[in-house]
Specification:
This protein is α+β, with helices and mostly antiparallel strands. It folds into 2 domains: 214 residues, no CATH class; 149 residues, Reverse transcriptase/Diguanylate cyclase domain (Alpha-Beta Plaits), CATH 3.30.70.270. Helix content is 65%, strand content 8%. It has a 5-stranded mixed sheet, sandwiched between helices. α12 links the parallel β4 and β5. α2 packs antiparallel against α3 and α3 runs antiparallel to α4.
């Protein structure tokens, strides 16, 4: 007997787990946000089902009028089917209230008001407890203003219900009793509403802080790997990229090309036109490089007017073609409005990593090739000698 029992168990039950996952995705939704929303609606539906069962039992013992449980069941359960299908289909995703919690709250208040009319005179106050439940349930989805509005509307709806019932049937709904219940409602609901408002405010503040923190973190990460002037990757990021590329070569044999670029006569550009134009020249080169090079290629500002490009799965010929495209794009790209005739030209040294070695070695080969391109007249490419030659 061999093998790990835990592994064998997992392998044996993989189809069952996968089937359960597919069923859950089919019922609750394909993404996490939709699943959370549909789960919330199903939870509300379960609560309504429990309330309908309680209403049925209350009718059986004479606490509630016999017609009320059926009315509650035949209105609430179909309504929640509609709520669920709308959210599950994704049609509410772009709404400010994607869970439809406001419509659910309004529906709940109407159901509570109806239940209040059907409960007997001595037990009618039990229904008021459900108002607090509706308010508390919305704390985690409503804005502070919505939480306050729901509480106020709930109080007004029940107050109107009590007043109308007392006026229509003062025998079954004694005005004095209804007034006492209203006073209890008016005394307790502000506390519940205030708690909901404060919790919603705290939740909204935390959500805002999280968004701000996430944005700040993204900005810090961007600044950590990007050159501020050109928007290209910086030397630190490129060093890590080179290390990763060498490791991929050592593990998978995936060769790559490195191109070390130096802008020609850049000091003269600064001397003749000023450092502002020099900065615009660097930016013009960066824009052309990001436009011309492949998405899989990585270009970084290596230092000063030097740039470094890593081209994965590239031969020397492909790297030379890329440099030719870049040179052609720069020949048509104006640099500065204050120097309309100025164009960016560059020399480059191309080295292909196709034999075991480290980052320092391939950079040295590319640097020697760049020096050769400059000695040969600039505005051209030079290919580094193969390793060991």
């Amino acid at each position: 007997m061999s093998g790990n029992p835990a592994t064998s168990f997992a392998e044996e039950h993989d189809p069952i787990i996968e089937a359960i996952s597919r069923l859950a995705a089919f019922v609750f939704g394909p993404d996490r946000a939709t699943r959370l929303r549909t789960a919330a609606i199903l939870l509300c539906a379960v609560m309504y089902l429990i309330c309908c069962l309680a209403a049925r039992m209350a009718a059986d013992i004479g606490v509630m009028r016999s017609f009320a449980p059926a009315w509650l069941a035949w209105t609430s359960l179909p309504a929640y089917v509609v709520f669920f299908l709308l959210v599950r289909s994704g049609r509410t995703r772009r709404l400010k209230d994607p869970t439809l919690m406001i419509p659910q709250n309004v529906f709940a208040l109407l159901a509570i008001a109806f239940a209040y009319t059907a409960v007997g005179p001595h037990d009618r106050g039990l229904v008021l407890v459900l108002l607090a439940l509706v308010t508390v349930f919305g704390m985690y989805t409503h804005t502070p203003k919505q939480s306050a509005a729901i509480g106020i509307v709930a109080t007004l709806v029940l107050a109107a219900t009590m007043g109308i019932l007392s006026w229509l049937d003062p025998v079954y709904y004694p005005p004095a009793h209804e007034l006492i219940r209203f006073e209890l409602l008016a005394g307790s609901m502000p506390v519940v509403v205030l708690s909901a408002y404060r919790l919603s405010t705290w939740r909204e503040r935390v959500a805002t802080q999280r968004r701000d923190l996430r944005a700040a973190l993204e900005q810090v990460q961007k600044l950590a790997v990007r050159d501020v002037l050109t928007g290209l990757y910086n030397r630190r990021f490129m060093q890590e990229k080179l290390d990763q590329s060498v490791k991929r070569f050592d593990r998978y044999g995936e060769r790559f090309a490195v191109v070390l670029i130096d802008l020609d006569h850049f000091k003269q550009v600064n001397d003749q036109h000023g450092h502002k134009v020099g900065d615009e020249a660097l930016q013009a080169f960066a824009s052309a490089a990001m436009l011309v090079l492949r998405e899989t290629d990585t270009v970084a500002r290596w230092g000063g007017e030097e740039f470094l490009v890593v081209l994965p799965n590239a031969t020397a010929g492909k790297a030379a073609i890329a440099m030719r495209r870049l040179r052609e794009a720069l020949s048509h790209a104006p640099v500065s409005a204050s120097a309309p005739g100025l164009r960016v030209r560059f020399s480059s040294g191309i080295a292909v990593h196709e034999a075991p070695g480290n980052v320092a070695q391939i950079l040295e080969r590319a640097d020697k090739a760049l020096y050769q391109a400059k000695r040969s007249g600039r505005d051209r490419d030079a290919l580094a000698a193969r390793t060991g030659t």
